[in-house]
Amino acid sequence: MLLLLSTKILFSQGFKIETDQGTQYVTDERVCNGRYWTEEEGKTKLEEFSNLWDTAQSWGKRAKAIRENLLAGMQWDKISIYDGKIKVIKHSKKTMDGYTVENIALESFPGFYVTGNLYRPLQKQKQYAAILSPHGHLDDKRLKEDVQYRSAYLASKGAIVFAYDMVGFGENHQIRHKMPISL
Fold this sequence. Notes:
By secondary structure, the chain is of the alpha+beta class. It has two domains: 77 residues, no CATH class; 95 residues, Rossmann fold, CATH 3.40.50. The protein has four helices and seven strands. The longest helix is centred in the middle third of the chain and has 18 residues.
């Protein structure tokens, strides 16, 4: 529950977006202004939220509303369903100390590829933790040392990590990041 509550707080902090029409700000009064809360503000918000959703049933209802609004905001209903075989391009595999890393491109829908690096542990296991690691809003962030170290460490400890480029960043330039549906 704390993870879900933390996710809610993360998405409620407020933000600006860059579009072809310039900078636009989220104006929904339910979204807090600013990019972060102080420790004291965060504690206050957690207390407020814990009073609003203090049972599994009340949180379930709120989680459903959050999920529906995220899907509506992403315009999920406008994205075509791709039920074909996913094409995977892999190359340049390197075996390192306790893990492997290789370049990978996945065709997420016809003609559009998600690019990134796939880190896998060398030691075989019955099950693996899977971690999706978007790079954040920096140019070529996936290629920076901190992302590579984190991904390599997690893989060496048994997780499979896919560090991928967001739309319009890194090797993914098929469409621009400023395209409204990519935001």
